[in-house]
Amino acid sequence: MTGVNNVKALFELSPTVNGSGPLLFSWQRTAGNYISMSGSSYFVTIANRSGAIVSQMALQGVCTSMDWDKDGDVLSVTEERSSIVYLWNAHSKEVLQLDTGVKDVACFAVWAKKSQILAIGTAKGSLMLYNHRVRKKSLIIGKHSKKITCGCWNNENLLALGSEDRTISINNLVGDTLQQVTLRCDPSNLQFAECCHDTDKNREVRVSAVLGGKTLFLLDVDEDHGPVELAFQSRYGSIVAYEWYEGDKIMIGFSNGFFVCVSSIKDKMGQELFQARNHKDFLTDVAVSVAVNQGASCGDNAIKIHNLDELKEVYNILSVEEEKGVVNKLGWTSDGQLLSVSTNQGYLLTFLTKLPLLGAAFSTKLAYMNTLQQVTVVNCLEEEAPFRKSLPIEPTFVALGPYHVAVGLNNKAWIYSLGDGNACIDKSYLGTISSFCLNGDYAAALFEGKVLLHLIEPGLIEVEGKDERLEKKMFPDPGNDERFTSIALARDFLILGTENGTLRYFYLEDWEVVNEFHHLVGISMISPDSMGTKVAFIDEKGDGFLYNPITDVCSELTSFPRAVLSILWETFLSDKHVLIVCSEERLHTYVYCQDTLDGSVCQYAGATKLPYGQKPLLMYNGEVSCQTLTGKISVQRLTTHSYQDEQDLNEQELKVSFEKCIILKRFKDAWSLAIAIDNTECWRHLNKVALYHMDVDLAIRCSRQIHDIAQVSALEKAKHMEDKNALAGYIMLMNGEYDKAQDLFIKSFSPLEALHMRMDLKHWDQALQLARTLAPEELCQISLSYAQQLEQEGDYLTALKLYEEVQMDAFLSQYCQAGIARTAIMSGDVRRGISVAQQSNMRSLKKECADILESMKLYTEAGTLYKQANYPDQAVAMFIKTKNWEMVGQLLPLVSTLRYHSLFAKAKEADGHFNEAAIAYKAAKDYDNYVRILIQHLHQIEEAVKIVRETQSAEGAKMVAKYYQSLGDPTLALQFLVVSRCNQEAFELAKNEGLMDTYTSVIESDATWEDLVAIAQYYNDTGNPLEAGRFYIKAKEYAKAVHILTSGYQWDSEEGKHIDLAIEAIGEAQTEELTQKLLSYLMGEEDGKPKAAKYIFQYHMAIKQYREAARTAIIVAREHQNAGNYKLAHDVLFNMYQELKKLDIKIPAEMDQSLMLLHSYMLVKPHVKKGDHGRAARLLLRVANNISRFPSHVVPILTSTVIECQRSGMKSSAFNFAAALMKPDLRSKIDQKWKKKIEQIVRKPDRTEEEELLDPCPFCNHPIVQSQLDCQECKNAIPYCIASGKHMVRNDWSKCPKCQLPALFSEFKSLLEVNPVCPMCHEEVMVTDIAREEEDLESSELCY
Length: 1344
Known about the structure:
The chain has 41 helices and 63 strands. The chain is elongated and about 185 Å long. The chain starts with 7 loop residues before the first strand and ends in a 30-residue tail after the last helix. Residues 197-202 have low confidence and may be disordered. A hairpin with a 4-residue loop joins strand 50 (535-539) and strand 51. Helices cover 35% and strands 26% of the residues. The strands form 17 sheets. The chain has a four-stranded antiparallel beta sheet.
């Protein structure tokens, strides 16, 4: 025997058992533990599933039929030429001979499908019905006129019989004929359809039979239409066998080897769904097993097996050796595990086509059957050697613990140690075991509604105190009739489910029940996680739930499937909250969420298709290990877990993976995918999920990604909340679900938060209800707030009632009085409201009531309350509306609103009271009308002029101007015309009266372009080009200005002013044409008269040619210096120096040296004044050594040098310069005051010289004399002090805060103490404004 697809040959019985020749055999119904067979040996042999012969029954002839009852308890056998029917009991192994009691041969016998009634047909057409349960026989003689050859029952206890009289009868349970059909030939192989294909019927009413081996007869019992005969192609041959499956499909085998499937649906009656020639020469039988969804045919010494869903594909081929004969019959067990085939030579061959799907799991270990009598234990995660154990039985259950594996049959269990496979504990129980489970120390068995908990190995377990009670326990306790339906063992607990809905936790350490949960209906299945902290269960209605004993919360499993086989929990540590519910076709994934805004929930994640014939045993990290029909383990990846990391995924794939991670609560992976997606919508979704699961840290991170600063701030305050209900309430509040937030706050340890929330939201109605139970002391305050809200909403009557209820509270009485006053007025009781307001001391209340009265147009009452509340402006407004001028007059001095003064003034003017009107206009700051009253009615022109000058009122000025024009005073009229902005009139007046200078002085700052151009034109026409040019510049008419200013006009007293204006014009214009025009003028190209260098300097400065300006500045300074104007020369150089410094332009060396010499000369006088003759002498020596730069004062400078050197002990220097003065060209110019002294110095020379002090170079620290401004050691030019002329040193550095030039701190301070003015920039500098600071040699200025 050979085969593929792991179909195994189980056993073989040879002809020595049954005799040669064809065999008749039948498998026991339901259990399939026995097979009965009979051949030519006149014996019926019964063997078990292993092929061992259990019993034999001798017959008087050849067996003609055999059949098992509905439960497989009794086998019926008929033999040829005998009226006796043999009944073999599967339990007692005894044979009962049933005599029909008639002289007739029993041809066949068949058991009913739903009861223990046996139908026996005889050769003469009689029918006997035998009730085995009550041992009663009923004989119906003449049911048919000839031999009854075949028959069958259906699930509705209808009996169909076929006879050689060519009829088929339909009979009920007592043998009455319901219907009889006449045929054209003898029927055979009579069958009822397994189930009806008509969806609107529940009964099975279709019967079929083979007629003459050629056609298939179909009869719908309850239909009016006649029967149908299906004929087939002649090449198929004769019909050998057929089987119904799926209610409306028929599998037919033909003698020529054809294997055909046809439909019996009315619209497709007889249509071939599949056809194949399975066997080349012949076909002998077909068989169908719905349990394994397979069909088989035999012939040509081969068996071919097909899957009923894919008939085109041959699932398996089994071959039989030719010497064993031709295969002629097939038969499956009810569970489809075994397929038997017999041959015409008496062989019976049995194949194992499907192993029993028996398996169990513990942690990452699996136990499963890899053969009918061998159990295997493997570790799916760790590489361990498999544990295999051959068994003495075919078990019906398998259980697995950490150290043991258990198998069992009926009421017996065998427990094997995984460490020592030979160690076996054989345990018998008081009933058939329906559930069995293990943990490390204990085993628990469920049988007949009872549970026995016991130690697995009592002798090996140390029990504290040797208390025998801790070794075993029977549930329920004696005297309790409670029945258990399911059990499970966790590490520390035995969990039991009862038929009345109780879920009970029995704690193994304390040996007592520690927790009970009562469900509404009975519990049919339970499945805890590894620790027993969560248990999923199914009730008798088929609904699924998950119970958490820690929180005592039961959550419903939504979208729960029907016909659940098992429930598995995830063993992967990070996903302990995931479980799958296994049905026949799908694996349904659920995710348990203990802490959500909705409490504990179990969310449906999705479904995964389960391959046919696989039993899920273990789930680890989304992979489900399943036992297959062939005894192997396959791994199925759940679709809910089949996502990838972010690498190499497109956006859509990333989003799908992201959604799966969120469903599975794998938030870390979801975060990584969200970063890869980087989509605001994605971040918002993750943020929403995090909030739902109260993962505050994740929600904060998501909020930061979407820049929701408000939510981040709110969550930061909530992240440390330990009360889950309070945290959930806070999040619900953020989401705007206030009712849910209130419920959660009430459940929390801070129920007052619910009240505070309603108060913050101003939900006063709900707040009142909460305050009555949570905080009665808050009722008055809440009622007051509620009344205020109702008042705002316009429900004044209800608000008034609430105010009246709360007014007795002393603390709130004043607020209530205010509310009563307002609502009384608004509800129509004006008198009461005014009275309450007037009695109150609250100024604000009176104003509020006055506002209300004003809105109601009760102006007199409103004005009175405004007056009492000391709001004169509003009171006056009300009295104005009622024209109560008397009250207006009384209150007007207190009023600040100008409009009311103006209204009162107009009223008084209309009445002719001009003095009062003028006062009111002035108070209203209505100066135009005030001036008008003063001029027209009161004739107070001085006051009018004063007001106009103070207020610059245009209309007032116009009126004053007209007044002065009428008096013939054009000067004053001109001023007031300008103030009134009547510029054109003022211009004409000034032009006509010769007052243009007056006009320009008045209008200059406010003149328009037109005004400026008109003035310039006027001056040009009247021969005043300087003023014309000035006003053209103001009008930005630069070309005209330059043209007029550089024309051939003879400038006398104003020499140079026109050039200054022209330079100003080109400086503002910055145009090449005008620049060149002016340069040509300055250079004398037009008139042959070059202009002074100072104008060239101003020109270059104006057009921002600073380098040329610097060169010109040197020339200008030299001119001033030659002329003896040293301060002017100093200022020119210094100003140019500052300009160049601002523009970051390098200072020319010549400019730097000239400024240094001029500044040194100017420092002499301050130092002489403060008595520092030595410093003055050193400065004069520096100047005297460059005396050629001071030609106008050679003798005075040299004289001063001689005198100061003599005073300072520098005799040699004094002699040298005294000798210079004795030259003939200079001697006569010496001041007579000093001449004799100088001559004496020359006559009596003294060559002594006081040495100058040394200070270190700030660059290299080499000592050099104080007056030297360059270092011979490092070759650097050294900055000089603007206060003393000395070179700078590091440790005494400071700067002028105004010009930022360096000075020795000590010298600068000493100089400022005498005169607080910088000697360089001549700006005021106080001693407190300077300080020592770090030197900055790189940016230091004034380096000579």
